């Protein structure tokens, strides 16, 4: 009962926060003369009322959070937040259906960036700002979960980072609250810096603010149907590359750097692996574009860098339709949808550290085959790698691709062709944004998909964002009776 009160209290507080953030697009529409401000006012009032009710229900008694409640809270908070975040879309003068609105808000909160909306260049500014706010809130929300909840739940090898994140910072910032404030300050500071850089490079103040929120969150929502191609002038795409990478690095490292340990950024194994991977991919795609045709040779490095970084970090900004450049890029970017950035970052996907751990385990297996009596302890980033973490990572890979296959199969049953079904499932699992093909590719969107497909993708986005097991365990009978 005390755990239920805790869940109710926290979800109520999150809804109140969401309702308060709705006031920003309400004021934006009011100032710019759009009648859409009434939609946000109504949505905010309903959300604040629901949040207050949940907090009142939790009043009295001792609050307690056990492991089961942590699993429930992690998933239910995302589901409930997405449900209330649909209100501005559904109450607007050009309302979305509930399926479309929920898809859009889940895509925003999970920082996926897939969209069912078109005509973005002509939409009221309040709606555009709300989409950006959803991704910004989702970005900081996943950081809290990744750092505070997932290591405790021992999900997908995340227990490796409990000591790595909390022990060094604990010597500097002794309380969890101070750590959360430090990460929030880093997130806000980088967002403001990004907005300022965009503005100085010629992007309007409003677009700069919206883009900065979706760039740092590695979300990918833009205020134009052309995505980032509408703003890629004066070096804005280069700035976006930098901030997308910053959003895909572990935010805990920024605290250590700010507190006098800047070398921590490059001592981290997954950071080094992530940056090396980006460098290799950018060089490879650049060479391929130069060799593929003279149409792309002049801007080959620029196109390669932006699109590789956008796909690997899971941001999903489009800068041209890479499917039209060269035949091999479609399959390559399909594979990159699964990669993701670093653990403890805004990025989705499998995460670099899991590939590193899996490769280390495979190398040890091969060594033992050649020398059965060889004793070779596993290590990751200079510390012993427990077998439990290794098996947890392997479990994660199996379940990840099983969920991807099931989602792709479900989408095929919904009538989608193979390329659309598989790429939609991959982009939803990896929280990337665009898929492949004419329908959901960089030049399209998800509006034409049947409602069943949108609900499948909404669930897939949630499962992928919350590291699979956090959601899937709720569907096991033993979880509820143990």
Structural write-up:
This protein has 482 residues and is mostly helical. Among the domains are: 276-331, no CATH class; 352-481, no CATH class. The chain has 24 helices and two strands. The chain has helices spanning 2-21, 23-32, 37-57, 67-85, 87-90, 98-109, 125-153, 160-170, 176-200, 205-216, 236-247, 251-258, 264-267, 269-292, 294-297, 300-312, 329-336, 352-370, 387-413, 418-429, 437-440, 451-465, 469-472, 477-481, and strands at residues 379-380, 383-384. The chain has a two-stranded antiparallel ribbon. β1 and β2 (383-384) form a beta hairpin. The radius of gyration is 22 Å and the shape is globular. The model is unreliable at 163-172 (pLDDT under 50).
Largest sheet: 2 strands, antiparallel
Shape: globular
* E-strand count: 2
Rounded to the nearest angstrom, the distance between the terminal CA atoms is 16 Å
Taking Cα atoms only, what radius of gyration do you get, to the nearest Å?
22 Å
The helix content is 55-70%
Report the uncertain regions. Answer: 163-172
Q: How large a portion of the residues is in β-strands, by DSSP E? A: under 5%
Structural class: mainly alpha
Mean pLDDT: 85
Order of helices and strands: HHHHHHHHHHHHHHHHHHEEHHHHHH
Strand order in the sheet with the most strands: 1-2
The number of helical segments is: 24
């Amino acid at each position: 009962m005390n755990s239920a009160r805790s869940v109710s209290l926290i979800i109520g507080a999150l809804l109140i926060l969401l309702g308060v953030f709705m006031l920003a697009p309400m004021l934006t529409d009011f100032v710019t003369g759009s009648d859409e401000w009434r939609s946000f006012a109504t949505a905010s009032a309903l959300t604040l009322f629901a949040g207050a009710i949940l907090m009142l229900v939790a009043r009295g008694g001792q609050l307690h959070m056990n492991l089961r409640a942590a699993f429930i809270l992690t998933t239910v908070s995302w589901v409930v937040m997405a449900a209330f975040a649909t209100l501005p879309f559904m109450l607007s003068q050009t309302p979305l259906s509930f399926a479309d609105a929920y898809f859009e808000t889940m895509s925003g909160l999970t920082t996926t960036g897939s969209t069912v909306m078109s005509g973005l260049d002509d939409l009221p500014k309040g709606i555009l700002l709300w989409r950006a706010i959803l991704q910004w809130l989702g970005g900081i929300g996943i950081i809290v979960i990744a750092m505070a909840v997932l290591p405790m739940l021992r999900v997908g090898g995340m227990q490796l980072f409990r000591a790595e994140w909390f022990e060094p910072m604990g010597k500097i910032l002794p309380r969890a609250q101070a750590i959360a404030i430090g990460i929030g300050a880093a997130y806000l500071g980088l967002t403001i810096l990004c907005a300022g850089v965009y503005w100085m490079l010629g992007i309007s103040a409003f677009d700069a603010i919206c883009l900065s929120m979706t760039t740092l969150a590695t979300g990918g929502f833009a205020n134009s149907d052309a995505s980032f191609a509408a703003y890629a002038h004066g070096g804005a795409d280069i700035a976006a590359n930098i901030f997308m990478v910053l959003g895909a690095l572990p935010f805990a490292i920024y605290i250590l750097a700010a507190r006098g340990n800047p070398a921590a950024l490059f001592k981290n194994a997954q950071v080094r692996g992530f940056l090396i991977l980006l460098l290799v991919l950018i060089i490879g795609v650049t060479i391929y574009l130069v060799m593929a045709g003279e149409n792309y040779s002049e801007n080959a490095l620029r196109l390669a860098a932006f699109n590789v970084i956008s796909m690997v970090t899971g941001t999903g900004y489009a800068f041209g339709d890479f499917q039209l450049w060269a035949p091999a890029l479609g399959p390559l970017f399909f594979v990159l949808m699964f990669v993701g950035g670093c653990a403890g970052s805004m990025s989705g996907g499998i995460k670099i550290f899991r590939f590193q751990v899996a490769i280390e385990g495979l190398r040890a297996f091969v060594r033992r085959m050649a020398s059965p009596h060889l004793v070779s302890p596993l290590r990751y980033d200079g510390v012993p790698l427990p077998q439990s973490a290794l098996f947890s990572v392997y479990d994660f890979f199996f379940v990840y691709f099983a969920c991807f296959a099931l989602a792709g199969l479900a989408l095929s049953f919904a009538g989608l062709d193979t390329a659309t079904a598989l790429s939609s499932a991959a982009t939803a699992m990896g929280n990337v944004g665009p898929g492949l093909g004419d329908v959901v590719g960089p030049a399209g969107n998800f509006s034409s998909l049947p409602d069943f497909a949108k609900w499948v993708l909404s669930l897939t986005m949630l499962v992928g964002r919350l590291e699979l097991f956090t959601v899937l365990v709720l569907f096991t009978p033993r979880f509820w009776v143990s």
